[in-house]
Amino acid sequence: MSVFHGQADLGGTGNGPPVSRQEFDELFEAVRTWGRWAPADRGAWNRVTPDHVRRATARVRSGTVVPLALPWNTRSGPDNRKPALHHMTDLGDVEAPEPSTHKDFIAADYHGKGITHLDALCHVAYRGQLYDDRTASEVVDAAGARFGAVSALGPLVTTGVLLDLPTVLGIGWLEPGQAVHAKDIIAAEKALDVTIGEGDAVLLRSGHVRRRRELGAWDPDTASAGFHVDAVPLLAERGIALLGGDGDSDVRPSPVDGVHSPVHALAMTAMGVPLLDNLDLEALSAATAEAGRYEFLLVVAPLNIPGGTGSPVNPVAVL
Amino acid sequence: MSVFHGQADLGGTGNGPPVSRQEFDELFEAVRTWGRWAPADRGAWNRVTPDHVRRATARVRSGTVVPLALPWNTRSGPDNRKPALHHMTDLGDVEAPEPSTHKDFIAADYHGKGITHLDALCHVAYRGQLYDDRTASEVVDAAGARFGAVSALGPLVTTGVLLDLPTVLGIGWLEPGQAVHAKDIIAAEKALDVTIGEGDAVLLRSGHVRRRRELGAWDPDTASAGFHVDAVPLLAERGIALLGGDGDSDVRPSPVDGVHSPVHALAMTAMGVPLLDNLDLEALSAATAEAGRYEFLLVVAPLNIPGGTGSPVNPVAVL
Amino acid sequence: MSVFHGQADLGGTGNGPPVSRQEFDELFEAVRTWGRWAPADRGAWNRVTPDHVRRATARVRSGTVVPLALPWNTRSGPDNRKPALHHMTDLGDVEAPEPSTHKDFIAADYHGKGITHLDALCHVAYRGQLYDDRTASEVVDAAGARFGAVSALGPLVTTGVLLDLPTVLGIGWLEPGQAVHAKDIIAAEKALDVTIGEGDAVLLRSGHVRRRRELGAWDPDTASAGFHVDAVPLLAERGIALLGGDGDSDVRPSPVDGVHSPVHALAMTAMGVPLLDNLDLEALSAATAEAGRYEFLLVVAPLNIPGGTGSPVNPVAVL
Amino acid sequence: MSVFHGQADLGGTGNGPPVSRQEFDELFEAVRTWGRWAPADRGAWNRVTPDHVRRATARVRSGTVVPLALPWNTRSGPDNRKPALHHMTDLGDVEAPEPSTHKDFIAADYHGKGITHLDALCHVAYRGQLYDDRTASEVVDAAGARFGAVSALGPLVTTGVLLDLPTVLGIGWLEPGQAVHAKDIIAAEKALDVTIGEGDAVLLRSGHVRRRRELGAWDPDTASAGFHVDAVPLLAERGIALLGGDGDSDVRPSPVDGVHSPVHALAMTAMGVPLLDNLDLEALSAATAEAGRYEFLLVVAPLNIPGGTGSPVNPVAVL
């Protein structure tokens, strides 16, 4: 894996090479799957047939269950500008016993960097169009989305593949700003003895959460490790259903001129591949290393929010 | 199933027989599992070993995936007094493109009858004590619960068993106020050719959601179908891990003198069995009928809320 | 006051006469004040000069202070479909003493019938245009309003005039659906010995709150007492700054074909007159009756919400 | 004003002299007014009789109206750890026209440093007791406060006095950490030709907001200008009704051993004087300087929140 042979290489921002807007638009066309599926709202999740589900559940060996969600984060910080809310609304003193009850209220403006969440296909539009050529302004309003809502996705049960880059490289984490390229994916597949197949969920571990725990929080909009757009054609070719990671899949700063979140636009808007952001992959890294297997059953069960642009989730890996 | 031989029987409130407080307290002692597990917070989920997980995933046959959550309900009504919130916070006009983004905010005081949710073990205290003899006032405060929080539960992957009473009885639904007894569970097991085993999740379908769709909403605090406390010893004996349903498991009005939610207290506080409330079991009923199998892989993945009393969820059945 | 000579008259819906859309549009043109003021956002509040403020404060006689807000209503009901939230977030157990602190969280989607609030000029658009001919879609987006926001209004200190119709009529309340016409305003002025002048705030008491207390809540969208549009030219001629009431100023059902809230559109969109909805005028009715004076100092101090469409308020009358 | 003769003096933390816990407790006893008033919930607002109201309104000269609230702050920052929420819930696309409507939702956990708010008497307890010797744990629970709630206060109409220290001293602002003492109050009264009288509201301008605008935000918990406890006996002697400022009245760090907010405890818990935190006094400073008068009519109209610990407010000064 040539880009990663030492700390020296990782010291640079490493988000390049730069990509022009025209090159990006050509890439967008190249990976576009508009018109392919019905219902279009489910996009690439249509690839996950009952056969895939059966194969995914058949991968379970040890029965180890690993949750992938960060803790609900109610403290503001550089990576949590819209902290989630958690209020106790009954401490056994509001409703009459017996029994007495404790209740709470949760709230979140969950897109951002602080909360583990799934992005539905209505989340991102490029040049005004959502996936499948739906005009965003016609199908999304203050009442919610009439196309591409999370309620149209439902749950996903499929094979997950962990691209555990720090493990492959024998380092603690990728530095923020480090791009992951197609060749790195191929090298990781080889090193981890996995093959990304059609309908699979690809989870990229950059070591973001470990770095945050050791060094403290930073602003991921300024710098975070993630895919360079040159990795996307490979993922498209493999026919993935879901892309996720401990960042938000995009390397930042963006290498694409005038496009702040190019992997978001390619995955969701062109390919119909929902994203899973801000995962905690540390326990999964340990569990996969122990098992010596980097593929597993993955279940993602978004809340059933009609018109919603996504959902906080707690994805579950079963090894 | 003697209590259900006709519409005449179902016409009554059918929530009896009445149970005295002393009888209830004896029952509470009889099914109590305090001190049995570590970590105690996970209660009966400790029964779900990796072996159970493997067996549960091995039950998958068709690969059919069925979500069990009601839609996020933002409209107030007799069964939704604290409506959930869903606000669009970006319509592609707040943050600069490209791409443009749509974002939203969700919020819920989710205990109640309107939202599909999991109850964690800190939710219910009887005589001031939570499960495992923890004094509620010492471990729950305005900052959250330090014992029995949903973050201590994590996800559950186990075998689900659907007790589809209306299907067994050939009726549309149980009338609100109708109690389900131990003998009805046994009869349903026989009719549906399932056996509730240790570590299983038992889901009771009363037809609540179908009735609501056909006849409109009512106040389930006044009347709902659910278990009579006399069904609990059987569930305890079987060693279930989770109890859920399209109601909240308790028949209402409560047959127990001075205890408004006796099944809650027995399941959660005595037995350490979390509850899953307000499921939509209609699609699962159809899928199990079609498959001719009433057991399946069940995945429940609560949000990772430190100190939380539960979580909205979208449980997933895989047949 | 011819429309009100007896219970028989009030027994009908009394919201007429019907008004055609063309008649309404002519009325809209007739009372329009677009282009008259700078800053246009403050609309008719520009009428309230320092002189008016001085005269208003000089009206104080007894020093009696009367708040006009309903209690923050957290219970859903037919007139409170989006209940306000009130959560205790610290019960002296979250932050370290000494001293210990109690804190809370409040929230509201306050437009509607449950919360006393001020409507800013961006709240209502007619045929796509806000007050002063601003195109709504150009100045309001998911980030808020760039024209006509409540933050542009600031507080109002002026003379308030209570049109206490039930007192004039010697009845408990106007029945829901009863319209108030220009002649009724004139009769009330005479009976109460007040004259509505330029820059004044007109508060219409229909007895809504008293009726709700005695008979229980109803859905005010279905029927509420309020102004017929034929009262608006008189209010326009008088040059009022603010219109308020214990309803939302509009008689409902609307007498205007195809316009559900015609007084809202005339007052706010045509005349630049903010509205004050859902006041509790019962204590003010008693205080004015005791004082024998129906004009007073009125202070309305909306929260300073940039881009906001209004604000919950607690208006204060000083007699 | 000896403590303030130059930048050198202001360069130190200046929060002293240190005060022992015993001295503080003696001070607490010395200024205590428990048992003096009914209703006790209104505390020192009972001093504001109709006579005071009349005198306050009679102070109006120019009719200039000055709002004192900071903008509703939805961005997290060092002085806004729990940002307020503001969501547009209707952009004219949710409810049917005509007219079309724009609506929004506001929310805040408003205690803290980011939002202008009033503290009700239930907000602060010292040694477990609220004002008037009420045991906090007996009167405050998750449903709210049954004593000392903001709904018991209602609005305040009184004489406001601006202690504009930076103007007196000819400086831009007091440095964070600078204490204001009794002698400084007396010197300010002399310099500004005002006398704090019974029932008055005292507003301390430290220049906090100007400093924030010029230098950026900082964490006021670490350092802010405010009253030293040695100023409190003078305020008690004068019989003030309300204490407010552009900080939260307490100098921070606290000079009192083991008491993080000693002025809060003395004012609210001992004296029954509500506090008004985080005012924007810049416009008022300019207006009072122009008028050459530092007293004015002040109206504070908290939202009518039953059981609430305070309220966001937009206090209004009328000169």
UniProtKB/TrEMBL annotation, chains A, B, C, D:
Keyword Hydrolase in record: yes
Keyword vocabulary terms for this entry: Hydrolase
Chain positions covered by the region annotation Disordered: 1-21
UniProt-listed InterPro entries: KFase/CYL (IPR007325), KFase_sf (IPR037175)
Enzyme Commission numbers on file: 3.5.-.-
EC class: hydrolase
UniProt-recorded Gene Ontology molecular function terms: hydrolase activity
Signal peptide, first to last residue: none
Top-level division of the source organism's lineage: Bacteria
Pfam families: Cyclase
Protein name per UniProt: Cyclase family protein
Originating organism: Streptomyces yaanensis
Organism lineage string: Bacteria, Bacillati, Actinomycetota, Actinomycetes, Kitasatosporales
